[in-house]
Write a structure and sequence with these properties.
Elements (H helix, E strand, L loop, with lengths): L2 H26 L16 E7 L6 H8 L7 E7 L6 H11 L4 E6 L8 H12 L4 E5 L9 H7 L5 E6 L1 E7 L1 H23 L9 E5 H5 L13 H11 L3 E4 L4 E7 L2 H18 L1 H4 L8 H13 L4 H23 L7 H19 L3 E5 L2 E5 L7 E2 L5
Parallel strand pairs: 1-2, 1-4, 2-3, 5-8, 6-9
Antiparallel strand pairs: 4-7, 5-7, 10-11, 11-12
Helix pairs in contact: 1-6, 1-11, 1-12, 2-3, 6-13, 9-13, 11-12
Length: 383
């Protein structure tokens, strides 16, 4: 076999792997409007929501949290500082829904370098029910939000999660973030879970509180810089698995800038690199560039016309991705393919950046992530 053939086969293998992930995720996922599996038992649930500042769609996400169709649940909003401008918004929404039990908990328990986890501690301790959901404040909860999570629980579950599904983008860079979140990250996470390689996602996490309390409580999630990575390792250590809901929940995006996308993706990549380096390393092979570069090199060595080769690889990679988004009711627009291209051009640079140390901004907190997990430390943050 000559070099051109070997490169062509390598390109085909990457394209086939990409297609396989889409087919596996497609079988595992339901459409966004599909109802969850019916369940008989509906125990009371505590929902812990760490909040900080006013975000895009804050009014709507708060209102949705008070409109869940579950017989009995409580909302515990966790705020680090009593002067936070989100507090009046929560109070106003709670006053409009007096039938829903809710509390605002103020305080900053410094158990880790993870500001979100620190904010959640008081909510976990105050939760009155055995089933607890840790939910990010920008999740747009559907009415059957709790039922989706509870229906995902199985006999061997340790935690049930949902990836964020990007929606309502305003501008091209928000379209790029949709392509990062949906047909890239959500797709690979669901494909991994279907193969028994599930990992937690901190956007929405359902826990059985007695189980976690018996294994260190919420403080145990301080074992890693990211609570979802710590959750994955804890659950696996107990011989349990991470499971996902049948269809992910929306995260409305609004306007985004290129700098915001770069910063956010670099942060997530660095966290994956220090917590799961063996799984992170192959990410350099994802996206259009690796199979395209291999195919173009093979064509040049084999004296083959480039245009048909490029079009073939583009179609083989992006048409199935578009098909997955269309079949599941995910965001698609005239900007989707250009956004996919920009995403895939950014991915190798983000991957390379992840191997370098440096500071990141995490919910207003400046943090330093070194080149190994043992170098993680929190840098002083502003007020």
């Amino acid at each position: 076999m000559d070099m051109a053939q070997a490169l062509a086969l390598a390109s085909g293998a990457l394209v086939a792997t990409n297609l396989a992930s889409i087919l596996i995720a497609g079988r595992r996922l339901k459409a966004t409007d599909a109802p969850p599996r019916d369940i008989r038992k509906k125990p009371p649930v505590s929902i812990v929501v760490p909040v900080r500042g006013i975000e895009n769609f804050s009014a709507e996400t708060l209102d949705r949290a008070f409109r869940l169709t579950w017989p009995s649940y409580e909302l515990l909003f966790c705020v680090a500082h009593g002067s936070d401008p989100i507090i009046p918004e929560i109070e106003k929404t709670a006053a409009a829904h007096p039938h829903v039990a809710s509390r605002i908990l103020v305080g900053d328990d410094r158990i880790s370098a993870n500001p979100k986890l620190n904010n959640c501690v008081k909510g976990w301790q105050a939760a009155r029910h055995d089933w607890v959901i840790l939910a990010d404040s920008n999740v747009l909860m559907p009415p059957d939000y709790i039922q989706h999570l509870m229906a995902g629980w199985r006999d061997n579950s340790g935690v049930v999660c949902s990836t964020p599904l990007g929606s309502r983008p305003d501008g091209f860079w928000a379209e790029v973030e949709c392509m990062f979140l949906n047909t890239q990250q959500a797709r690979w996470q669901y494909a991994g879970e279907a193969l028994g390689l599930g990992f937690a996602q901190g956007k929405s996490m359902l826990w059985y509180k007695p189980m976690l309390d018996a294994n260190g409580g919420i403080q145990a999630l301080n074992a890693e810089i990211a609570e979802d990575a710590a959750s994955t390792k804890l659950v696996n250590r107990l011989g349990l698995q991470v499971h996902l809901v049948s269809s992910p929940f929306e995260q409305p995006l609004g306007r985004r800038t290129g700098q915001e996308i770069w910063s956010r993706q670099c942060r997530w990549s660095r966290l994956r690199r220090v917590t799961f380096p063996c799984f992170f390393a192959p990410e350099i092979l994802l996206g259009i560039l690796p199979p395209l570069l291999l195919a173009v090199t093979a064509a040049l060595l084999g004296d083959t016309a480039l245009a048909p080769v490029i079009l073939l690889v583009l179609a083989a990679v992006y048409l199935p991705e578009i098909g997955l988004a269309f079949a599941k009711g995910w965001r698609l627009s005239l900007f989707s393919v250009p956004a996919m291209l920009v995403r895939d051009i950014m991915m190798p640079a983000i991957w390379l950046r992840a191997w370098l140390g440096g500071t990141i901004d995490w919910r207003g907190n400046t943090m330093t992530i070194g080149t190994t997990a043992c170098e993680l430390k929190e840098a002083p943050a502003g007020p």
